[in-house]
Amino acid sequence: MKQTTRQQKIIDLVQKNGYVSTDDLVERFKVSPQTIRRDLNELADENKIRRHHGGATTPLSSVNTAYNTRKVMQLHEKDCIAEALVKYIPNGATLFIDIGTTPESIAKELVKNHKDLRVVTNNINVAAILMGNEDFKVILAGGEVRNRDGGIVGEATLDFIKQFRLDFGILGISGIDYDGSLLDFDYHEVRVKKAIIENSRSVYLAVDHTKFGRNAMVNLGNISELDMLITDQQPPEEIAALLKEHNIPFEVISRTS
Amino acid sequence: MKQTTRQQKIIDLVQKNGYVSTDDLVERFKVSPQTIRRDLNELADENKIRRHHGGATTPLSSVNTAYNTRKVMQLHEKDCIAEALVKYIPNGATLFIDIGTTPESIAKELVKNHKDLRVVTNNINVAAILMGNEDFKVILAGGEVRNRDGGIVGEATLDFIKQFRLDFGILGISGIDYDGSLLDFDYHEVRVKKAIIENSRSVYLAVDHTKFGRNAMVNLGNISELDMLITDQQPPEEIAALLKEHNIPFEVISRTS
DNA sequence: GTCAATTTGTTGTAATTCGAAACTAATATG
DNA sequence: CATATTAGTTTCGAATTACAACAAATTGAC
Predict the structure, then answer these.
(1) Which of A13, A86, A239, B68 has the fewest Cβ atoms within 10 angstroms?
(2) Partner residue facing B141 (CB), from A75, A127, A142
């Protein structure tokens, strides 16, 4: 086998597995450890991989950096919120799951223990996550895929969503204003969110505390339309008052860290 | 700092960077290497991370094993076929990409150097791959997601596909009979493939040699409907004769391994 | 405050991994 | 045909990392 071929294969392997050890590669290509080290060092020089003691990993993500770094913010909080929310979802339920990193965390939680869910989503990541559970029936809305986050939006998506009427709508959101307005940045995304609200028997909103009072351009409805809110810190007074006024149950998870 | 907190932070770091070294962690938490090793080993036992000499990486996704192992079969051949096929796709083209592992390889090739493609697909993996290139416009067909391979099939998918009329249709397939019949296993999938054939100006079929003479239940058309066939080994006489008879160009890639 | 359990640090030793240099084989190149 | 050039292997000392066992420190409960 040619050197270039081998190096290409090494890149593929790293991309696929996230990590390869020199031993693995020696085994796989039947060459000496030194040869592998040369390959790895050369590839590392070209930034094709990251070199480490004992092997190599994927280079610092070339694409999707914006989305992937955003994904990590408040990761632990999102997980805790997700853990709390899924307790309210019974087995066998039907639900929408929205675009966003929090909804993705929720999908990860659902996949662990739930059974027989039927889920409609317009988030390609959520669909990929839910595929992991064979008991689930996953329906993906069609439309144009946004490269930045794998969300699917547009007119076609809207029509698709409107075909369904499900038990739960699980929403993420960009901001909640002090007057209870639910806000987001993208007009098209907002239209889909609205459709989800209209076609769900119960709407659950999961937000981390950074969203309170945060501003965004497009109004997609009011907090009074929700059936439950789950968050990780006591909301500001104004919002807490609104929740009380409209008798909307909300859960503030206890932080474990 | 508590042990649980540190371990959670380690997980976050691994998720974020794909890799952390023990040294990094020692530096970051100001604790002894031994403590870090204990943490890493514990986390590895719980499958939260993958342990390696010198550090740790993200765990291997436990799900999708059946599909992922299948994915590796003839991996190199598929890659070579893909490399040959994408040379026929000009920048700025519009194309369908089908369900299957070969089409996924093709998507991986396209993402590397092509520009301004507009792609319609019913394969969630292809969509995820193509997202990597910001120049591409990716349109995903809606419908039910098959857990086993991320294919999207069904009536809704069919209607969605039929809305488009594109330059190229890139097909994968389960088998080609000696009489030139194109065969597959799933009736619903076949209907989608037929729709792709009907709505593409040129249909390109990429198959590895294991598909020749292989039988499957559902007939989805004849080899004469193709505009090009790319494969990795000289096809059997019968099929070669059919290709010649219908003046269908085909390329047999030279194996580099 | 005391005791027990847990967590962390230290030390010594074993196991891996690395890189440099010398050597072999195959392939061009004039 | 002699000579570069390139890729690969082998060997070996140095550096790095890991693990086990025990001591020290911290924590939590009563």
Answers:
(1) B68
(2) A142
